[in-house]
Design a protein that fits this description.
This protein has about 160 residues and is α+β, with helices and mostly antiparallel strands. It has one domain. Helix content is about 45%, strand content about 15%. It contains five helices and six strands; from the N terminus they run H-H-H-H-E-H-E-E-E-E-E.
Length: about 160
């Protein structure tokens, strides 16, 4: 009986490195409001900056153990990002189609002078596909590609030449 009473005392003590924890909570809230992504590496960086701002001589390291305990204590989990919903703007696309067609007709531009390009690339560092969120939240929608890559672009005109 006495052992279980002491076990609960540990849970009641104030968490170590409260500034780091608070900074991480603020970052999670900001990311949620902005529909942004949060990675463990980003959380560790924010936690280190917060603790070192308060105390330059701190022993805080933002270790994997610390981040795992933070994730567990805040009931966070990883969720995968899906889609590119934030990139699309159907109203702007429809406006462009109408204005471009009108532009071509007014100026009588030949098809040889209309070009199409298709951008592609090779990834050097892949995008973040998972983010830390509160357990009851859904993953934020992806904003599309956020990665370092080398880009190339083949080009052709409307007649295929």
């Amino acid at each position: 009986m006495a052992a279980s009473r002491h076990k609960n005392l540990r849970k009641m003590r104030k968490p170590l490195y409260q500034e780091a924890r608070s900074a991480c909570l603020e970052e999670l809230q900001r990311a949620k409001e902005d529909g942004d992504f949060v990675s463990i590496v980003g959380m560790k960086r924010i936690a280190l900056e917060a603790e070192h701002k308060i105390n330059r001589d701190t022993a805080f390291k933002a270790s994997n153990g610390w981040s795992n305990r933070l994730i567990s204590s805040l009931d966070l989990k990883f969720k995968s990002h899906h889609g590119e919903i934030a990139k699309e703007d159907p109203v702007a696309a429809e406006d462009f189609i109408q204005s471009f067609s009108t532009f071509l007709q007014e100026l009588s531009i030949p098809l040889d002078c209309i070009f199409n390009a298709d951008e592609s690339g090779i990834q050097f560092r892949p995008e973040i596909r998972r983010s830390l969120v509160m357990a009851e939240e859904d993953a934020p929608n992806s904003r599309g590609s956020e990665k370092e890559q080398m880009t190339f672009m083949p080009v052709t005109n409307a007649t295929g030449i």
